[in-house]
Structure formats: structure tokens, C-alpha cells
Amino acid sequence: MEPPRAPALRRLLLPPLLLLLLPLPPRARAKYVRGNLSSKEDWVFLTRFCFLSDYGRLDFRFRYPEAKCCQNILLYFDDPSQWPAVYKTGDKDCLAKESVIRPENNQVINLTTQYAWSGCQVVSEEGMRYLSCSSGRSFRSVRERWWYIALSKCGGDGLQLEYEMVLTNGKSFWTRHFSADEFGILETDVTFLLVFILIFFLSCYFGYLLKGRQLLHTTYKMFMAAAGVEVLSLLFFCIYWGQYATDGIGNESLKILAKLLFSSSFLIFLLMLILLGKGFTVTRGRISHSGSVKLSVYMTLYTLTHVVLLIYEAEFFDPGQVLYTYESPAGYGLIGLQVAAYVWFCYAVLISLRHFPEKQPFYVPFFAAYTLWFFAVPVMALIANFGIPKWAREKIVNGIQLGIHLYAHGVFLIMTRPSAANKNFPYHVRTSQIASAGAPGPGGSQSADKAFPQHVYGNVTFISDSVPNFTELFSIPPPTSCPLPRAAPDSGLPLFRDLRPPGPLRDL
């Protein structure tokens, strides 16, 4: 029998999760780049890429009208005297931005027929003459570096160019189209996908055992849902990165969907933790109306902030800068909401322990384990912003994020395993008993938010209903004594009634 407030919980979950399905604008990648540029500016940023120290290569094809000659391709690297000194600096004109380039490092490609390394030649199409340039450039440096590609024509009448660039790192399937800061992401995602598939199937198996005992509560179903959505998210990430490794383009919509599912899994798990902290399905059968309203408002606010963060990252992150997700107002807002959730979680757990001290075997390790989890995201954001080099940030943060999610799911799976050795198993009231436990009390008062009956843990002898209890099979139960009805002293009836079965009925 389903808990009476399960529909309310679905109403609590669905609106925030539906918000995550809002379409987001695609974001261009910078590994296989093509397009048409027409600008009145004389210096324009095109793209960036983190090349490996010995195997980086740029292959290009540029085409523009001969009348717009002569344009230059500028290659900046991430040294403070190079790209940071020219980008977003309003006090420098085109010539000043070109002056930081070191000609001895071959950082300039003159798109003219006089510069042999550019591979330019004049072609005619429909009566117009074009400069068509096809060539390449290799990159070597003492470490992995970000390189930034810009187009310039100082003192001219603007820029006009058709371009196509392929930026690669070696020839291996695992590195060719990946920027150096993305190395290992595909392998990491595949590994975590396999681990989360195992966690999901284990949770389904444990859910099957719990259902047999009528202990499959709403909170455990939420855990199973969070694990399943996490598997889908990682599956879509693996498909995206696999396709990207093949063609250098990938399907950006698939990546956005994977991010939405990743956020959905996080939100479901966060809501489950808050509900468990408040004692839902552990010490109480339902959440009060005011509590449901607060949870709805909080989860909607958290979901909206997630959506704003994804939109902000897609639309307003400057591709000329290497930025991290939490380097934005929306990212700081998420950290604030995470801290607020932890304060709420602490208060809910302390209240539950005060009213139900016998639940300490569950709540004490539960609180300690997820205190670490709540602070993991803010700490990760600080480390990523200030402690991880930009050329290694994306791959390291990806592994840390997946490790945090694995920790959260793994701890909960261990704590709620339905085995005889698990002394901190949280559930003791069967799902069929929740309705009676949450029925209105005398005078119509709702006792549901208050309480399941206090108890001693009954999971120590957890045995599936499908397995016979051999201890009971070979023991003789003591006789049950039933009080016999007494007659009133003045009734004249015998003190004890003959309990023998009546004789056979006669056919009258």
C-alpha cells in the first residue's frame, strides 16, 4: 500500500524537475571549427585550444576576397605577457595587440601568396578573385598550454573570412580531437558508468528484498530513481564524448541533456536527504503541510538556479577565457543554497534524534557521512577556482564531481542494505502500516507528522519472506492462555461455560 502522501511528494518533485527540461542554447566547441566572419573590427578572436606539449597540430583552410588583403592569423599562448595582456584590454589597439607576438616563434601566419608557409593561392569564382589558404602548424612547448587564435588586419576596412580549422592532439582515438584539459574524461565517464550501473542494479535488488518485507518506502524509491537518472546521465555523456572523439564535433544537445539529467539526479538525492533528516518514512508517515510548502519553494528555487547556471554558462561565459562553472553569480548562488540545505539538514536530524533517540544507530553515521558530502561541492569549487591549473581543470573537476556522487550513493547503499548484520537499518514500519500510523487522531488531530511508534531495531533478524525461519520451524511455541468469560455474580449462570463443541444437529 502506498504511503498516503506519496502523490504530494510527486507534486513536490515534478515541477522542479520539469524546469530542468527547458531548452538551452547550444554552445560551440573549439576542436573542429568552421564559419564565416564579417566584421568592421580590425582584430577578432576566433577560438582556443589546449595543445599537448609535443603533439599539437592546427590544420586550416582560410578563404577571403583578394580585395580584403592582407589578413593575418595570430597565435597567442597563455603566458601573462601574451593573451592576458591583449584580451579585453581597452587601452590597446590592433598594432599594440600584434606587438606582443614573437615572430621567432612563428606565431604569425600572413595569409598572402608571398608567405610560403600559409599555402595561399589566388582562385577565381564567378568573376571574383579570392585568396585560398590551406596549410597547418605544429605546436611544441615545455608543458600543455592554452593557445588562442585571432584574426587581424590593422588599419584596414574590416575583416571578412571563411575559415575551417581542425585542432588535434596526436592521432590516438582517446586524444586526437580532445583538448589537453579534456584528456581522460571519456575513460573516466565509462568507468563511472559501469560502477553506477552496478550500484543501480544492487539498489533494485535491495528494493526487491524490501518490497518482500513491505519496507520499500518512498525515500528508498527516490534513491533508486537518483541512481537510475545518474546512469542515464553518464550514458549520454559517454555517447557524446565517444562521438566527439570520432569527429571532433559531437552533439551539443546530447551533452546538454546529460547535464540536465546529472543535475536532476543531484536534486532528487538532495531532497531525499532532507526528507530522511526530517524523519520521513523513518520516524513519521508524512510531512506537514507547512513543511511540504517549504520544501517545494526550496527545491523550485534550487532548480531555477541550476537552470540559470546552465544558461549563463552557455550564453555568457567568454570563450576567450578559461572559466569554471562556479565562476559566475549563479555558481555562487548554488553554493549558498547548498550551505542553506546543510543548515536545514542539521536542524531536521537534531529534531529527529531528540524525539527518537533509539534512531541514533542510523542518524549518527548518516549525519557524519553526509556532512562531508554537503561541504564537498563548495570545497571543490574553491579548489577548482584557485588551486587547479586551467589547462588541467576540466578533467580533474569531472573526476572529482563523479567521485562525490559515487560517495553519496555508495554510502546510502551500504547504510540501507537489508541484511541481518546491518544494525543501522532505518526502516521498521511496513508500508501497509503507514496509513494507520498516519490516521487522524482523536478529535481529528493529525498525528502523522508526529510519529511512528517508538521501537527497538527489528532488522537484526532480517529474513526474506520467501525464506523459511528454521528457528521457528523447530521450536515449540508456548501455549497461549485466553481469559475465559466470567458471568456476573448475580446472574445465576455457571461461572465457567462448557467450551466443548456441540453434538451433531438432529434433523427435525
Walk me through this protein's architecture.
The protein has 508 residues and is α+β, with helices and mostly antiparallel strands. The protein folds into two domains: 32-169, Jelly Rolls, CATH 2.60.120; 184-415, Rhopdopsin 7-helix transmembrane proteins (Up-down Bundle). It is built from twelve helices and nine strands. The strands form two sheets. The chain has a five-stranded antiparallel beta sheet, with no helix packed on it. The two termini are 50 Å apart. Residues 33-163 form the GPR180-like N-terminal domain.
SSE layout and pairing:
Layout: H1 6-19, E1 32-39, E2 43-51, E3 56-65, E4 72-77, H2 83-86, H3 94-99, E5 108-110, E6 120-125, E7 128-139, E8 145-152, E9 159-169, H4 185-212, H5 218-247, H6 252-277, H7 289-315, H8 329-355, H9 360-386, H10 393-415, H11 434-437, H12 470-473
Antiparallel strand pairs: 1-9, 2-8, 3-7, 3-9, 4-5, 4-8, 6-7
Class based on secondary structure composition and strand pairing: alpha+beta
Order of helices and strands: HEEEEHHEEEEEHHHHHHHHH
Main β sheet profile = 5 strands, antiparallel
> How many domain units?
2
> How many strands?
9
**Tertiary shape:** elongated
CATH second-level architecture of the largest domain = Up-down Bundle
Q: Helicity range of the residues? A: 40-55%
Organism: Balaenoptera acutorostrata (Common minke whale)
Region (Disordered): 486-508
Pfam families: GPR180-TMEM145_TM, TMEM145_N
Keywords: Glycoprotein, Membrane, Signal, Transmembrane, Transmembrane helix
